[in-house]
Amino acid sequence: MRPITRRGLQWGSLYVLMALLPLGIALLSPPQETRGLLGATGVMFGLLALGVFGMQVVISGRHRWFAESVGFDNILQFHRQAGLLALWLVLLHPLLIFAADPSYLEFLDPRDDTLRAFALVGLLGASVVLIVSSLWRVQLGLSYEWWRLLHGGLALFVVLGGLGHALMASHYTAGWLTAGLLIAALLVPACLLVDSRLLRPWRLRKRPWQVIDNQPALGDAATLTLEAVGEHRLDFNAGQFFWITLGDSPFSLQQHPFSVVSSACRPERIAFTAKNLGDFTATLPEMTLGTRAFIEGPYGAFIPDVRSASGRC
Ligand SMILES: Cc1cc2nc3c(=O)[nH]c(=O)nc-3n(C[C@H](O)[C@H](O)[C@H](O)COP(=O)(O)OP(=O)(O)OC[C@H]3O[C@@H](n4cnc5c(N)ncnc54)[C@H](O)[C@@H]3O)c2cc1C
Question: What is the pLDDT of residue 3?
Fold first, then answer.
């Protein structure tokens, strides 16, 4: 794991502030009714869960401005731990409220309000599925691609549904100013999600690559060389990796990370060696020349110190 830099610590502080933002905004206005310490703690946990889930969307979006300073491994491990924390907060949120005042159990009764009951059970269920499917993806037989789609969809549902729930419950969020600030705070992750899942592949569409060489490599592997179709190029450093999609659409679920094995001095050509480990890598030896490719990156901060490196381009 790469040590966290000073910049990383600054990002960490910003993360804490952003995760606490929904709670902070809610505390600006007095609650609609007094609920006692237990009930109020339950409500706080819900708002904190909303902030943590919102930030989960931000940190997992492969935004280079963030990933470079913190390091991919650190982000992945933190994302996992923060997901578990968010799940505990989501589960404790209703439990504490019901323990403080059992009359709130009627919120789960579809005879009382069908839409509200299904929405609340749906949000709780989605949070559990989100975490369980991530922890036990392989045991559940979920392919990486379908898991990624499910994960993104559920995350969006939990964040937007959680926001809707906080606004409709209006315990701390009554008043247009508080509601507006809360919506604005959660629009940040929503916009970054749209950027990473829709706009980024859309931008990649205009910068296609193609397979120009495909060679077998030692250890049941294949080395593919991609060349830019057009004048574009991708500057990178030795030791970095790219997310690669092969085929006509950059929106494909089949997007995989591979380290570059070609020289950083030729940024218009990128080669990677992939070991046959599963369904995608098994297809690589048969990949025909001329196949379209899309490359996202570069990522990774495990690079040589360019000031001391001798053979610069
Ligand atoms: C930063 C990074 C750099 C990598 N560089 C190389 C490389 O240079 N050469 C190489 O052979 N492999 C590399 N890998 C691993 C490579 O991405 C996976 O082997 C490949 O995605 C497997 O896909 P599959 O569909 O063939 O196999 P699957 O059966 O889907 O998976 C096989 C294994 O790879 C993991 N995996 C699957 N898809 C992904 C994904 N999109 N991201 C991360 N892990 C995944 C699975 O959890 C499983 O453990 C790298 C992985 C990372 C995270």
Answer: 60
